[in-house]
Amino acid sequence: MRSYSLLASAKINLYLEIIGARPDGYHDLAMVLQSIDLVDQIDLCQLETNTIYLHCSHPEVPQDESNLAYKAAALMAEKFPDAFTKYGGVDITIHKRIPVGAGLAGGSTNAAAVLVGLNLMWELGLDQKQLQYLGSLLGSDVPFCIVGGTMLATGRGEYLTPLPPIDNFYVVLAKYRSLSVSTAWAYQTYRHQYLRSNVSNTSATGHPNLQAYSGKIVSAIARQNQMQIYQLLHNDLERVVLPIYPQVQQLREEFQSLGCPGIMSGSGPTVFALTKSPTQAQQVVEALSAAIPDPDLDMWVSQGTNSSIRVLSFEN
Ligand code: ATP
């Protein structure tokens, strides 16, 4: 039986700007997305029956049809019924290392790995664009997770423009284990509080970010100006998440006081900061654990990566 093991990278948002509300309930965004080498492992094993099974030992990850990785396999079975019949179903095991509900696109990258893996297992020959289209049917971050690297994402997040890879940088991530933020809640609250009036009328909300300002960070990335990139990190969703989650605000302030400004990734509650060396990253981790000696606080040191889904091993 065929089997594939894939590694699926988490992402961070170096920049997240909400341009406006869309009638379909989504938002027009300008984001700079970056893959990092914090990965889940996804094992796919071919089955003789036309069934999809999913296993994950993480208590917060659903093991039923609501899992995004399961949905990805079901979508492939629906779109390619001949291949599903010919090759049979699939048994999916998720080895979870990316924190759940953390703003790091854990579910989206698992779904991307299943699309990439089944494309290989079922010998479909789909190209990146076709996989990204299928990904867009599952969630706004999935098209990015198919390709990864450093990207400008617009629309709902599905229109992707590759940016030059940022040279050697390290990421310190911090998250309270018991804390998670619903992405849907964060966007709905933002819409309710800041986007109720005409989005072109900036004075009505007093919100200065109703036009895309991502150009500044994009040109800093193009010029490889790391100092400027660090200064231009931005996330509009902090406006709604920080007042409700004081622990996230405190994390942000601690990073700041260490001279290493941190921002929230996606809808949080993970806060990250960038450093130039692994030594500096480790020093930040140590200083942060001394400043907040809370056993509920998890921290990781990771590195930017230019890919998202990688095949670790396979048997045909
Ligand atoms: P995003 O940044 O894409 O909004 P996130 O990183 O904030 O996502 P996820 O880790 O994807 O959040 O989890 C969000 C919710 O999705 C979880 O509460 C979990 O119940 C559900 N979920 C469904 N499938 C998965 C999966 N494969 N991995 C993790 N969570 C999943």
List keywords for this structure.
binds adenosine-5'-triphosphate; 316 residues; eight-stranded mixed β-sheet; 12 helices; alpha+beta; Ribosomal Protein S5, domain 2; four-stranded antiparallel β-sheet; 12 strands
Mean pLDDT: 93
CATH class identity: Alpha Beta
- Tally of helical segments: 12
Total strands: 12
Structural class label: alpha+beta
Summarize the main sheet: 8 strands, mixed
Low-confidence stretches: 197-210
Secondary-structure element series: EEEHHEHHHEEEHHHHEHHEEHEE
User: If you consult CATH, what is the topology?
Assistant: Ribosomal Protein S5, domain 2
Give helix % range.
25-40%
**Rg (CA only):** 20 Å
CATH architecture: 2-Layer Sandwich
How would the global form be characterised?
Answer: globular
Domain count: the total is 1
The hetero compounds bound to this protein are: adenosine-5'-triphosphate
| Span between termini | 7 Å
The share of residues in extended strands comes to 25-35%
